[in-house]
Amino acid sequence: MRRRLPVRRPLGLLAALAISAGALLSGLPAQADETTPTSSEAPRVDLVLDVSGSMRTADIQGKSRISVAQQSIDEVIDALPAETDFGIRTLGATYPGNEQAMGCKDSQQLFPIGKTNKVEAKTAVATLRPTGWTPIGLALREAAKDLGTGRTTRRVVLITDGEDTCAPPDPCDVARELAAQGTHLVVDTLGLAHDDKTRQQLLCIANATGGTYTDVRTQEQLTGKVKQLVGRAGDTYKVTPAQTTGTDKCETAPLLTPGVYSDREKFSEHRVYRVPVKPGQELRASVSVAMDRAVARDYGVLLQATDQAGQELVRGTDAGSGRTDVASTGVRWSASGTSATPTATATGSGAATAEGRTVCLIISNSFAPQPGAAADPGLPLELTVDVAAASPAPDGPAAGLGRGWVLLLVLTGAGLLTGLVFGWVARWRIAVWREN
Predict the structure, then answer these.
(1) What pLDDT shows up at residue 27?
(2) Which whole number is the average pLDDT over 261-288?
(3) Is residue 434 predicted with pLDDT exceeding 70?
(4) CB 3.0-4.6 Å disulfide test: which of 137, 178, 240, 318 passes with 169?
(5) DSSP state, 213?
(6) Are the beta carbons of 141 and 176 closer than 8 angstroms?
(7) How far is CA 197 from CA 31, 162, 193, 194, 200, in A?
(8) In the chain, how many H helices and how many E strands?
């Protein structure tokens, strides 16, 4: 006697449940789309290269420090974005003598800032030979003059292997002076030597201007970092972040309008800001926290949007993304569900009204400093805030159908029907097979 084959009816139901789960998960908040107003100003970068005598030292993968720097700069020039105004300034490149007064005036503009003729720029770099003193403070002042003034942030990328040998002016004081002038100048420092004095001085310069410090160990690391910093100038030049100061409570937090803001956050600190959002609007926010000093491993950044009563609306996190210079995350939240009229029970601080509600943005970090790294000032952060008309995209063409339990029931019913049809067809085929 032939055995009857089993009919597997649950298949359609499982498929329906899988589709339903996917539909529910699709309702999770998306990352923020960051948009920035355009500007007529081009990104401007001045690379300041140390060509003092100590750059002859051959301790980077068997090559001299100057040859490593020259090769890296060549690769950076080849990869320059077309819109970037780029220049090169040297320090300690021309005076070979022992008279300090002369050696400490040795800083020249090797290649003027502007649209780059790559052949000329690379040829100028190839002619450099380690020569003299290390007037970092002087070079920073001159680089600020090279970059000029404007409404947008400009960057100095300093590559050096030692501390300033010409103070005064002390390079830390120069960096603080430039920052206090409101010149929108960021100095990023890259150290080719690894002694504590050099590291502390370069950290101080970077911290004073909101830049980053990198302890360079390999050719690839130097090339990659300089390319990244030049690219970052292109990402941020379009608007100068407005300085703000977050608080630890929503009630006292600064009220922000759409724009880009900068602040500093201490290790493991919470910073709070407020953004008004009206019914039918969508809040989009993103934050980047820069590691401008040595930090411990296993760190992360959390961006939360809550109402004023503390109820979480949405969150975004970044942890273990592989980036070693910055941690970024974003959130997106729509106020389309906000009540159009206040109710008798909606009278608390987090209540929604016809005017909308105030959303609290909370930035938290789990960074910890490595031994010897300064705790002050806090880590530089950049917060982008935008409020736009709520997007209908998550609802799709079947907005009324795709909400809540209605969609789940419809899809479950469709799955059951599919399973029944599949089972009926299978039974019919088995019956035909037995008759034949």
Answers:
(1) 37
(2) 92
(3) no
(4) 137
(5) E
(6) no
(7) 42, 8, 10, 9, 5
(8) 9, 17
> Which of the pair, 151 or 42, is modelled with greater confidence?
42
Q: Tokens 């935008």 appear where?
A: 386
The Cα 186–Cα 209 span in angstroms is 5
Structure tokens at 313: 């609306």
Residues 265-292: what's their mean pLDDT? 90
* E strand residue ranges, 185-299: 185-191, 213-215, 242-243, 259-265, 270-277, 281-290
pTM of the model: 0.56
Distance CA 226, CA 49 (A): 12
Mean pLDDT over the full length of the chain: 80
pLDDT tens digits for range 27-61: 333 333 333 334 467 889 999 999 999 999 999 99
pLDDT of residue 237: 58
CA torsion, points 78, 82, 83, 85, in degrees to nearest 10?
Answer: 40
Tokens of 208: 């004073």
Q: What is the layout of strands, in order, in the sheet containing 379-389?
A: 242-243, 259-265, 379-389, 281-290, 326-334
Helix (H, G, I), strand (E, B) or coil at 138: helix
In DSSP terms, 327 is beta-bridged to: 289
The structure tokens listed for 297 are: 């491993």
Within 212-280, residue ranges assigned H as helices are: 219-236
Amino acid sitting at position 28: L
Whether the link from the prior residue into 254 is cis, omega within 30° of 0, is no
What does each C-alpha distance from 101 to 89, 172, 174, 415 come to in angstroms? 20, 20, 19, 86
C-alpha–C-alpha distance, residues 145 and 228, integer Å: 23
Give me the amino acid identity at 259: G
3-class secondary-structure state, position 22: helix
Residue linked to tokens 């109820």? 311
- Return the SS3 of 175: helix
For residue 276, report the phi and psi dihedrals to the nearest 5 degrees.
-75, 135
